[in-house]
Amino acid sequence: MAELPPQELEAYEPKSSLRNASTIGLQAGLVGAFVSAVQNALGSHSAGAAGILTRSGGTIGTFAAMGATFAFTEAVVANQREKNDALNGVAGGCAAGFLAGLRARSLPVAVASCAVVGAAMGTFDYAGEIAGQSKEEKEEKRRKFFKPTPNQLATE
Description:
Layout: H1 17-42, H2 51-54, H3 57-81, H4 86-103, H5 107-131, H6 135-145, H7 150-155
């Protein structure tokens, strides 16, 4: 059976943790402001437009904090491991999910949120890694993951 050519390992480029955290935190804060505006528009109250900050303003901070926490943790883990893979997203998602659980003031919710958001981000990152691979790389990864069937063992 023909062997795949050896892959050249790409050199790792360190990520700026604080720059990533501030950029993603700002973007997530803008998404939070939009969500807060929708909450304010759909709610019945007498606060008017100021309700975006007074009634549902905590949403803005939560979104910003979760985004910044995710980006910072993902960059720190990637820099420590010197790898760009799905485990970085798992760590960042876990940290962001844990923060969301702390907002609910419940440790069990924080741990569950860590697991759910970490698993979701890890799956998303892993699927993105697979999508960027050639057909031969995908087949090699599949062959390493699944056990060979008896028919495959007999033909090799």
